[in-house]
Write a structure and sequence with these properties.
Length: 312
């Protein structure tokens, strides 16, 4: 599956840049709060948030994790500096401050690979970067080169709203006057919220907009699909479906599901609505969640956002 860089790329890299070469500038992918200076030969990936070589053999995955992820690693390093399972964590100073990284040998199928991971703190979130290098590319993408790339990592607290929304596969015409806009993951889904990440978004009305694939074609199967998707909404406990019915959304077939549940560390009673608008084998998914006492004022906002979404 993993192949070596094409011969032309190797000649260019080694002849003009030497074994360690970097692109000129710090790069933040559209919608992402994590940036770095990629090594020469790495370009933005099309199938995931990160970078990869032209033949997809060397991959750099970037993701945002909860703030607690960094704190857990930091505590683990303090308690067990020797590491576990042969992956000893190392500290590294990055452009964003102190971070922790590991290096280990592994296999991707039958191919020996070198795997690197880095975690750094963004305050309200943790930045995570994972790199995979096949053995036969390790003379160019060396341990030292990857370490230097990690050292270039930086974070930004905010991403321009238009940059986030432009990365989505749909247009959001009405934002419902929500204060926070955050894409999760960049280019995949977007959260619109009245609260922030530090206080917990479930304490006030919020929405999640995204796309689901693998939608069945039969209407009866779509009803079951919608209810299963609603039952899997993260963060809900003691959930009870109160409404489950097919509807029309902007002239297209859809399905509405409502749930009464509790959410968050304070067990906030919430009412949640999920709308699916079907287009072939895909569905636009709109989730609105509100503390129960705010539902009557939040629901019109949810519906306004839903009705303002268009295809690109």
């Amino acid at each position: 599956m993993i192949k070596f860089l094409c011969a032309f790329a190797i000649v260019v890299a080694t002849s003009f840049f030497g074994p360690v070469a970097f692109a000129a500038d710090l790069v933040f992918l559209p919608g992402s709060r994590i940036g770095l200076v990629p090594l020469i030969g790495l370009s933005p990936a099309k199938a995931f948030s990160g970078f990869e070589t032209e033949d997809h053999s060397v991959r750099v995955l970037m993701a945002e994790l909860p703030a607690a992820a960094y704190r857990e690693v930091e505590l683990s390093v303090q308690q067990r500096p020797e590491g576990a399972a042969g992956a000893r964590p190392e500290t590294i100073e990055t452009a964003a401050g102190r971070a922790y990284y590991t290096v280990e040998n592994a296999r991707d199928g039958n191919t020996p690979v070198r795997r690197y991971s880095l975690i750094l703190s963004g305050g309200s979130f943790s930045g995570f970067i994972a790199v995979q290098v096949p053995e036969n590319a390790s003379k160019i993408y060396t341990d030292d080169a990857v370490r230097q790339m990690f050292a270039s990592a930086n974070l930004r607290k905010e991403v321009p709203v238009e940059e986030q929304l432009n990365a989505l596969p749909f247009k959001v015409g009405d934002r419902g006057n929500f204060k926070l806009v955050r894409t999760l993951p960049p280019g995949g889904a977007v959260i619109l919220a009245d609260s922030d990440e530090e206080t917990g978004i479930e304490t006030a009305p919020f929405m999640v907009l995204g796309v689901l694939g693998g939608v069945p074609e039969r209407s009866d199967d779509r009803a079951r699909f919608a209810q299963q998707a609603a039952a899997q909404i993260p963060g809900l406990r003691a959930g009870r479906i109160t409404v489950a019915e097919p509807i029309r959304i902007d002239g297209a077939p859809g399905y509405e599901t409502r749930i009464e549940a509790v959410s968050g560390k304070n067990n906030t009673p919430v009412t949640v609505v999920q709308w699916l608008r079907f287009t072939g084998r895909n569905a636009l998914r709109v989730i609105g969640s509100s503390p129960r006492e705010q539902w009557s004022s939040a629901f019109p906002r949810f519906r306004s956002v839903r009705d303002g979404i268009d295809a690109r």
